[in-house]
Write a structure and sequence with these properties.
heterodimer, A: alpha/beta, Rossmann fold, Alpha-Beta Plaits, 2 domains, six-stranded mixed β-sheet, four-stranded antiparallel β-sheet, 14 strands, globular, B: 11 helices, 0% strand
Chain lengths: 325, 310
């Protein structure tokens, strides 16, 4: 779908992309990087809107340097920022955008009705966009990227500004873009955890360089952190400590999730190395006669993936603080 | 969210008579008409938008009102001409737009920002440029749309005058010639005003600023030029240098530019003080300046949108 070969983009002061070579196949691909890692620059180059300083890139087998217009006809783009005029209805706006993609008037109207329905906008679509919630606006933005039935869509930070429920819905929708609609997706985010659940493949870039490109399962298998929380009992007034000691006795390194936040002291973090770890936790907690309140996989920030040893531990501790238990 | 189920799994809703009929996702295999069609679509959407069509009722009020204001005097003149069985229309075709220039300026001031500032303000521009059209297509579509809207605004009253003149059985050849000259004049005026208005409006995403700036440029330049011309006229009364000075000063406002071009080449009587428009030599300069300004406006817009990008 997308192939780049030592792609570089230099601005007078910064190097946005530095000899990036990657190959992205069909499916949902996450492009992860911190703010300023070069994600948006990458999308601009792939849309044929900004020439690369050196190297080459192909989208759908078309060279971005020469076939920009042809690429943009077959590709959809959802920007990160607001891009909707408030005084027109979603229907009018998306119809106009469909025509701007080259769809004849009748087809534009039909596709608009279909697409808005698929992204979950129903009666609201006749009202001016100005009155929409953030979640609804994100859906309109997504609809305008899908309305011309592209083969590939670029979604730039689609979950930005959404509440947890909205986030989950948006991620579900992104998944369906591929499974139900048959459209490949390149989605950017600065949260790896989000993409783990949605993407088949994750590409991590940092400072314009490729850090890692692999399928999502690789990521989760090697890096899962398990968070567990247990109840206290009369026998073990401090259940958390009891579990930690018991796990420690069996040779499992346990990190304290405490960070001064309320409740955080009751969270234990440990690295899951496979099913055995889950079984071990279950047995230990059962032996002690405690209740297991939660056992969940923790989400990662990208930086953690590439740190090991002490650094990882430090980052995890920091993350636990961030999550506040 | 009422997420639709994947194709092929009907969704029974317990305790509810309704049922989601899922027709699934349909892919599009029809024609994709490409860049020139997209440009035309943008043109027609912008042209309609310049009269508030396809927009809210509120945004239809001003352009429609100005359109009516432009046409009513023409209708009255025709009525008078028919009633009094006049030999000629009270006003030349070429002169009409000059008389109504305040209305035209107001129209440009209100619609140029509506056309381009909105796209900048709400950051819709990246959505256009992520589609097949190029920067130049966007600029051409917007320029052409506003120029066409202005042409409709300025040519409609001329048409009223012309039809009225024919109904009043005025001389056909004479009227047709005047009408044609008027159309050439308003075409130039539409292109010039659209260019100036769009360049100013494209600099600011704030519509209010755009409106104020366009009005300022149009009226202040016209006011200043008229005043200077009046002073020149008073000081050089009866001298030969007077009309030349007046003519050169006229190069510095859009309205007097058009006035100069049409009095030099389109048989119009000039609205300049003393009624002396530029001669043929000066007239050539006027035409060059008008065409140069239109081209410069187009160039500036291209440069402006090269920077906007995504």
């Amino acid at each position: 779908m997308i192939a780049t070969e030592s792609l570089s983009k230099r601005f007078p002061r910064v190097t946005a992309l530095d000899r990036l070579t990657m190959d992205i196949g069909p499916g949902v691909t996450g492009l992860v990087g911190a703010n300023g890692a070069g994600k948006s620059t990458m999308i601009k180059i792939l849309l044929g809107l900004s020439p690369a300083t050196e190297g080459r890139a192909e989208v759908l087998g078309l060279d971005v340097a020469t076939k920009g217009a042809a690429i943009r006809e077959r590709v959809g783009y959802m920007p990160e920022h607001d891009c909707l005029p408030p005084d027109v209805s979603a229907t009018e706006f998306v119809v106009h955008m469909a025509r701007m993609s080259g769809l004849p008037p009748t087809a534009a109207r039909e596709r608009t009705a279909d697409t808005l329905r698929h992204v979950g906008l129903y009666e609201e679509r006749y009202r001016p966009i100005g009155g929409y919630s953030t979640g609804m606006k994100q859906r309109v933005k997504l609809a305008q990227a899908l309305v011309h039935d592209p083969q590939l869509v670029f979604l730039d930070e689609p979950t930005n500004g959404l509440d947890p429920v909205g986030r989950d819905e948006m991620l579900g929708l992104i998944r369906r873009i591929h499974t139900d609609f048959g459209i490949s997706v390149l989605v950017t985010s600065h949260l790896l955890g989000e993409l783990e659940r949605t993407c088949d493949h994750v590409v991590v870039i940092d400072g314009g360089k490729l850090l890692r490109s692999s399928s999502t399962t690789d990521f989760t298998q090697t890096t899962t952190t398990l968070a567990i929380e247990v109840t206290d009992s009369d026998e073990h007034p401090d259940g958390t400590r009891a579990v930690r000691d018991a796990l420690h006795a069996r040779g499992v390194d346990v990190l304290d999730g405490s960070g001064g936040l309320p409740g955080a002291g009751h969270i234990l973090l440990l690295t899951a190395e496979g099913d055995e770890t889950y079984d071990l936790v279950r047995d230990v907690v059962a032996d002690l006669g405690l209740g297991l309140v939660r056992m969940e996989q923790r989400r990662h920030h990208i930086s953690e993936v590439f740190q090991d040893g002490d650094q990882a531990a430090a980052a995890q501790r920091k993350e636990a603080v961030g999550h506040g238990g | 969210m009422a997420v639709e189920q994947p194709v092929g799994t009907p969704v029974p809703q317990p305790g509810d008579q309704t049922r989601i009929h899922n027709i699934g996702y349909r892919s599009y295999d029809g024609p994709r008409l490409g860049r020139s069609y997209a440009t035309r679509s943008l043109y027609s959407q912008s042209l309609r938008g310049a009269y508030g069509l396809g927009r809210s009722v509120k945004s239809k009020v001003l352009p429609m009102l100005l359109f009516v204001v432009m046409c009513v005097p023409a209708a009255i003149m025709v009525a008078v001409a028919v009633a009094t069985k006049a030999k000629d229309l009270p006003v030349d075709y070429t002169r009409y737009a000059i008389i109504m220039q305040a209305v035209i300026s107001l129209y440009v001031a209100s619609q140029a920002p509506q056309s381009v500032s909105r796209d900048l303000r709400f950051k819709t521009v990246p959505l256009y440029f992520s589609r097949p059209i190029e920067t130049a297509d966007y600029v051409r579509a917007k320029f052409a749309a506003l120029a066409s809207a202005l042409f409709i605004l300025t040519a409609a009253p001329l048409l009223v005058l012309y039809v009225g003149a024919l109904l009043a059985k005025l001389d056909f050849a004479d009227q047709t010639k005047g009408f044609a000259q008027g159309l050439v004049s308003v075409t130039l005026l539409s292109l010039l005003f659209a260019g100036i208005g769009l360049v100013i409006a494209s600099v600011t995403p704030r519509r209010g600023f755009g409106i104020a700036a366009v009005i300022a440029v149009m009226t202040i330049s016209y006011g200043a030029v008229s005043t200077l011309q009046a002073i020149a006229d008073a000081q050089t009364l009866g001298e030969d240098g007077g009309s030349a000075a007046i003519a050169w000063i006229g190069l510095f406002s859009p309205v007097t530019l058009i006035d100069g071009v049409q009095s030099a080449f389109l048989g119009a009587t000039s609205a300049f003080p003393g009624g002396a428009g530029p001669g043929t030599g000066e007239g050539v300069v006027y035409v060059v300046v008008v065409l140069g300004l239109i081209a410069a406006a187009y160039g500036l817009l291209l440069r402006r949108y090269k920077k906007v990008g995504l």
